[in-house]
Amino acid sequence: MTALTLDRLRSDGQRFMEEVSREYYLAHAGLKPTAELQAIYARHAAILGDDALALIREEFHSTTEGSDAHRSARLMLEWITDSVASRALAELDEREIAWEGSAVLHLDDGRVVPYQRAAIDIGNAADRDERVVIERARARVVQAELAPMRRERFQREKELIEAMRIAPTYNATFEALSGVNLSGLVAECEQFLRDTQAMWDDVYAETVRTKLRMDPAEATRADALHLLRAQEFDAFFPSDSMEASIRRQTREMGIDPGAGGRIIFDTEEREGKRSRAFCAPVRVPDEVYLVLRPHGGQADYRTLLHELGHALHFAYTRGDYPFEWRWLGDNSVTEGYAMLLDHLMHDAGWLARYTELGRRRAPTFLRTVGFEELHFLRRYCAKLIYETALYGGETSWSSLPDLYVDRLTSATTFQYDRADAFVDVDPRFYAARYLRAWQLQALLTETLVERFDEDWWRNPRAGPWIREALLGEGQRELAGELAERATGRALSFAPLVRAIEDLLVIS
Ligand SMILES: [Zn+2]
Can you give the pLDDT at residue 506? Predict the structure, then answer.
């Protein structure tokens, strides 16, 4: 076996990522019954263990901050840390997946419902009593069985990461590896919650009264699930023209939706294919799958736009960049491009041109969208604030459920349940990636409007700039660096607040 070097880590790392991505593509597209990941992990064990971690940690500490070598080392150290921790946590994660697949709820009226149906059944239940009955049983079984497993998993993860001796604490390690200033972002979230409180109180009360026909003080997270599942506009987002409309718009903006054959649209009907669209970058930038099974409806359009944003990003990334700039890095960037496209669903001109919503229905639709957007942003701000405390170690594990309920309920007004304090958590602060992606998306949209007019999405001059200034860079930069270079402005919540104000003012 050849000695472990940085270049070997790059070439084997790329092969490992390609094999994993291909396996996911085949399994989720229905081309293979299951993803067989164990064999891939075993084949690449040498680059996924403590030796690789030691090598790259040394490189990280010995390179000069600000240099490309340090940037590369940071990206690779973050990746190795994740891989080593994921391998160590695999057993706990598998135990949890097995539980989710077999657990059942015992409803007070004697019915038995599979755990995995609970969220769907609650979302579909127009009758509030029915939502209450399912939710009570769900919270009971989560509290008794899933929550302890999840709590153990997070405790173990925190110990593992802190034992890697990259920085003194879990949160400091995340900051060192991701380049994200957590406490700064938490402060921005707190400010955003204050700045949008009055706007939220208004739209929340109005929406709960008119759509749920409930007293706003009594609504819970289960009611929110039902509210957000509303399908009143789905007929105007037909499945048969979805792919063609979105491809046409991409061409009108001056971008080839197939990226010269590098993006493969897998659209045929196939047994075992996932129902939600997804993107699988099997070789970056040369072989990227966009898998979909068109159902129509607004959620389907949004998902296709989102996944197309990822696919374009991977397929237009510069092929001469090193592995770590093409495959690794700050996922706020790729999520930002995905959101840049899915937020076209908030653009009245785009909706009029590429859907059947029509001008007359647009104001009501956009106000609904504004409610959803503000709800999700406030929820994610509260999640990040809470998750920082969960990993931070200063709040005892037994006090976390009260903190969770307090944070999430005060941000969203919907009443949350203590049972979810370890379940409703995105590991490794993925909420921070989403929040920065959201900020990046809003900033890019404002910049595109300034440079290429309100209908930048059909301006053939916009595409070349998007490809070269944005997509081509892969994830070499942090989202904040990219924002400064491409727009001359810093990431912040300000453009998002402006966009939400526009959506809510309309009716
Ligand atoms: Zn995404």
Answer: 46
Ligand 1 centroid to Cα of residue 104, in Å, is 30
Q: How far is the CA of 475 from the centre of ligand 1 (A)?
A: 14
Angle between helices 128-141 and 221-228 (to 10 degrees): 120
What is the Cα–Cα distance from 426 to 432, expressed in whole angstroms? 10
- Distance (angstroms) between ligand 1 centre and the Cα of 431 equals 12
Q: What is the mean pLDDT of residues 264-285?
A: 92
User: From the CA of 308, how far away is ligand 1's center (Å)?
Assistant: 10
Q: How far is the CA of 506 from the centre of ligand 1 (A)?
A: 28
Q: Which residues pair with 280 in a beta bridge?
A: 289
- Predicted confidence at residue 2, as pLDDT, reads 63
H, E, C per residue of 387-456: HHHHHHCCCCHHHHHHHHHHHHHHHHCCECCHHHCCCCCCHHHHHHHHHHHHHHHHHHHHHHHHHHCCCH
Instruction: Please check the confidence at residue 1 and state whether its pLDDT lies above 70.
Output: no
Closest CA to 372 of 211, 242, 489, 252: 211
What's the gap in Å between 384 CA and the centre of ligand 1? 18
Q: Are 105 and 112 in contact (CB under 8 A)?
A: yes
Dist. CA 411–CA 122, nearest whole Å: 22
The rounded mean pLDDT for the chain is 95
The three-point CA angle 492-498-503 to 5° equals 135
| 265 CA from centroid of ligand 1 (Å) | 17
CA of 338 to the centre of ligand 1 (A): 6
| Separation of CA 291 and ligand 1 centre (Å) | 14
